[in-house]
User: What shape does this take?
Amino acid sequence: MATTTTAPKLKTHVGERIRRTEDPRLITGTACYLDDITRPGMLHAAVLRSPYAAARINSISIEDALALPGVKAVYVGKDVESVGGVPCAGSMPDLRIPNHKILAGDRVYYVGHPVAAVVATDKYIAADAIERIEVDYEPTELVSDPEEALQEGAVKVHPEYPDNVAFTFSQEGGDVEEAFRQADVIVKEKILVPRLAPLPIETRGVVAEYDEGAQELTIYSSTQIPHLLRTQLALQLNLPEHHVRVIAPEVGGGFGSKCNVWAEEALAAFVAMELKQPVKWVESRRESILVVAHGRAHVDTLELAAKNDGTLLGLKLHILCDIGAHHQLLTPIIPTLAVLMLPGLYKFRSFKADLIGAFTNRAPSDLYRGAGRPEATYVIERMVDKLAAEIGMDPAEIRFKNFPASTDFPFNSATGLQYDSGDYATAFNKALDIVDYKARRAEQEAARAEGRLYGIGISTYGEICAFGPSPATPAGGWESASVNVEATGKVAVMTGISPHGQGEETSFAQLTADALGIPMDDIVVVHGDTAKVHYGIGTFGSRGISIGGSALHLALQDVVAKATKYAAHMMGVDAETVTFEGGVFSSEATDSTLTLADVALEAHLCRQLPPGTEPGLAATRFFEPSNFAFPFGAHICVTEVDKETGEVDIQRFVAVDDCGRIINPLLVEGQIHGGIAQGLGPAFQEGVIYDDEGQLLNGTLMDYSIPKARNMPWIETDRTETPSPVNPLGTKGVGEAGTIGSLPAFVNSVVDALSPLGIEHIDIPMTSQSIWNAIHERSRT
Amino acid sequence: MTLKGTYSLPARRQKVWDALLDPGVLARTLPGCKSLEAVGPDEYRMHMALAISSLKGVFEGKVRIEDQQPPESYRLTVQGRGKIGFVNGGGSFRLRESEDAVTEIEYQGDVKAGGTIASVGQRLMNMTSKMMIKRFFTALEKELTAPV
Assistant: This one.
């Protein structure tokens, strides 16, 4: 098993269940979210969106809207032509990027496409004025379904790309054809992974303000990536980047939806500069469900080749990804992550994957919690179960048989990734013990004898985290951290990540408290303001602790080294003889001690500056990882299906997750619980529904069904800790784990329950209706 | 969304037919109808107020009557647009007179909605449509049985 060599010594904070320091302001309502921001003279914007999935715009009449008292301006596509398009970071050779203007030109391509913007003295006037804009749309032919889009003679979403192909991507490893020739058994399945709305509790929003004197543009945005947004806005608006400041205030969740560069951000910036007045735009919930890039959107076709003894040989996958009418920032990249993680935790010898992105007249798709990994894990875990059923092998046994051993790490996956460290069998055994697997199988036998539908579903998942080595990421994968020890001994930590619910103000303070031997109360963690913190990449892909935390770890080491020099000089001894423990520097030679605060004061007063030392006690470091980190785990779900109603009762849900070394178990469990909810939602009830006219049919929270408290099972969590060797903290990341592991565990469980009826697969969401239909189709035939 | 059903009116077929094609009667009986004016032969412009769930709005649209086989059947197409989206529909009406001077109207059609009305009102669209049809026929029945 891989271990770290440079992990800091465990002290009093790291590894403890410490409550989040963020929470008091959040639960007392004193936190400042985007919509809490007001600026002097601030105006309010509203966006008019297309009701058609495809139409020509013959004319737009704005006179009535402008006539409404309080309306300052109305903008349509031609007014904002100077603003650059919405960026896309994909890089496939055949990637096609249609011009993605911030407001529609003479055509709209999806329902919700921004057509015009009104700016008014308050948001209600802006909303009223939107209704007074007359748009003469001429509806055109459209294609809504991604499979139809790729058929011969399909309607062209963009006339310039007649085959509706947005990009392709292929990858191969080993000799897959030979594997299929050698196979005793081949199992096939077509699996749909529907579109999901990311649904952060706080919707998107932006406030833009232009200081004419300083020529500085300040953008407050509910974003996960303030620095990347600053760079992109500077490019879109042709502004010098050092005159643009982006602030991410308190951000109420993102799940990837705010790891993007949105049309409305550039639009607000443009308007604020034009009108020389601050402007605010806050998205409504309806807009959020309609246009915030949906996740997943796959039609997957799989073939798995194996030996009769359960040895996995090869895998063929075809992914059709419905990308919508336009790319957002990472649209083409996300499904490639599904290809990379397709082998899951197994020793596949060969694979072949073809990915095709199809334009459709739907809203763009892009990353959503897990981003590619839930899709991969879901389909591979379904296929492994299907194979086990085919050859009559226990689904637990087939998994053990194909895991790499803990001594095989670093392990090279069939897709060319190097899994950093792992001990899959130990985590899986732990989950099996907790659920008491043998007893559950015995219970299942008894239930089946009574005609009851009882299922046990297993998902052993792996994931790719801690994004990531820069060469493998579109915009750099490193992170920055600065530590300032002030004259009074208080400490400010500045990080380039941009937490929005993950709790890094707490975990970074834990790391700092242990490294400097000071109480957490003496530490402030600053983030999300490009004028306050050094350039960083942001928060997504479970990179906060592993990359940002590692940069902090390095900066803290520098601060301690410098402070030790000062302390030695102050005590008149050699630095090598000084020890630093619990915030106190001591020298046995002179029997003297100094606190960090003593040294910090001296570092600012500089009355006896050590030779070769600069004033101040601060350090800035950058961390570039050598590889991704690969967390893993095992989720087991026990269900009973009601034959009469199709309702599923989740009787047990066990999650054993290994996210490397843990800084704060409370934060880890929070991530696992929330993640499981976002994995189970799509398993049994969630999904965006479009009709064949490209109309989104469930655009409110009354219609788009996310799990409520009563839908959630009691979650039994446990963990193993296999440190990562690719960063000095040994951490791996846990942001996506619950979402990835839970979905296949549920689906496998329900399919297992229904297997006596001959049911082999039901697509998600497995609603009581679809389960009931499957049961009754079987009983009819 | 497909809509179909029957409704019986206590009037002779010709009388029902005449009422169904009389813009004045339609303006009075179509639920939410603010105005209905002829813009060509068998073609009308209509303003109609519509409320579904929390959505309220005025639709402006065109109504066209086609394939007339008096007094037996005709086809009706409706295209409406408003701030909350659009509704396009088409349907056929068939009139049969039974004994006792009762006319049975059989209708069958498709309605497609788009925009906010589709994403927000979907859940209630079917029910709302049925309710509006019922209101229309009830009003028409009143019109037909009103003392002259």
Summary: The interface with chain B takes residues 50-53, 111, 131, 286, 289-290, 691, 693, 695-700, 702-703 of chain A (CB under 8 Å).
